[in-house]
Write a structure and sequence with these properties.
Blueprint: E1 9-17, E2 21-28, E3 34-42, H1 52-62, E4 72-77, E5 81-87, E6 91-92, H2 93-97, H3 106-125, E7 128-129, E8 138-140, E9 146-148, E10 155-156, H4 178-181, H5 190-205, H6 215-226, H7 256-259, H8 266-275, H9 286-291
Antiparallel strand pairs: 1-2, 2-3, 3-5, 4-5, 6-8, 7-10, 8-9
Helix pairs in contact: 3-5, 5-8
């Protein structure tokens, strides 16, 4: 991909390269030499079609104004597509969790979760599903403010139309809600809350809650941990496209207290339990949890 950028920006080096584009570090010469990150998006697929993920990301960012959503500062066309200019974020939640010299404190874990919930409440209030919440997509600035990024899979949802169909090929496997793993195409924003619960559990434990190598293994880990779905609690599971195609041994499930370190509080475990549950309609919403933050150790 070409490295064209307006004279306003001075390239400092490449930060990384993802599925949807290259990210470089640059200096904004017209703004007190502020350090920024520039994501170069290809607007067309290899077949010449307009890439929907790029258009979705641009639309979401243009309409988002929240302290816990990555800020879009500028954008400009280049020879291969569009470049998006963001505030520079030195860390991801993933890199912070992997920093053995400076492990996350319990206070940082609670604050980061509160920021994630605040960002999700904002997005869901705009009727936007992120659909790929995971530690690598949660950026952290120099002041330890967490911001949700990477909206290439984001979609608008209509909570008045439960029959609207979406692709089940979304979210990174370890954070993918069980209804999607069973092939559901009529899901809603609760998939983001399942993922948020998995992220919180990972911060508390230091390792992912469910780390399957395949979709079937991922489901097997979920069933072993939560137990076989109770049809009384989640009758809709029987109608999911792949539910009857995949059979697992009956499982009673594990106690959350046996999964988390002994220092984990009941409120923290309660938060995970309120998000990592089978029935999407029974998962807490971000708004509900933020209202209950005093109960959950001021999360």
């Amino acid at each position: 991909m070409d490295d064209y950028m307006p004279p306003r920006y001075q390239m400092l080096g490449r930060i990384g390269e993802g599925v949807h584009g290259v990210v470089v570090k640059a200096r904004d010469l017209s703004n007190d030499d502020k350090i920024v990150a520039i994501k170069k998006l290809t607007l067309r697929t290899k077949h010449g079609w307009i890439a929907p993920c790029a258009i979705r990301e641009i639309k979401v960012l243009q309409n988002s104004q929240c302290e816990n959503i990555l800020s879009l500062l500028d954008m400009y066309p280049d020879l291969s597509g569009m470049s998006l200019v963001f505030e520079y974020m030195p860390h991801t939640l993933y890199s912070r969790m992997k920093d053995e010299e400076h492990p996350l404190s319990r206070g940082e874990t609670r604050r980061f979760m509160a920021m994630l919930l605040n960002g999700l409440q904002y997005l869901h209030g705009l009727r936007i599903m992120h659909r790929d919440i995971k530690p690598a997509n949660l950026l952290i600035d120099s002041k330890d403010v967490l911001k949700i990024a990477d909206f290439g899979l984001a979609r608008l949802f209509n909570d008045q139309d439960p029959t609207k169909v979406y692709s089940p090929q979304v979210a990174t496997r370890w954070y993918r809600a069980p209804e999607i793993l069973w092939g559901c195409q009529t899901y809603g924003p609760s998939i983001d809350l399942w993922a948020a619960g998995c992220v919180f559990a990972e911060m508390l434990r230091g390792v992912p809650l469910f780390s399957g190598a395949t979709d079937i293994e991922q489901l097997a880990l979920v069933v072993r941990t939560l137990g076989t779905p109770n049809l009384k609690d989640w009758p809709e599971v029987r109608s999911l496209p792949d539910y009857n195609k995949i059979r697992f041994p009956n499982a009673k499930g594990e106690r959350w207290e046996d999964i988390f370190p002994s220092c984990t509080t009941k409120c923290e475990i309660g938060l995970v339990d309120g998000l990592v549950r089978y029935n999407p309609s029974r998962r807490f919403t971000a708004e509900e949890l933020l209202k209950m933050r005093r109960k959950y150790s001021k999360i």
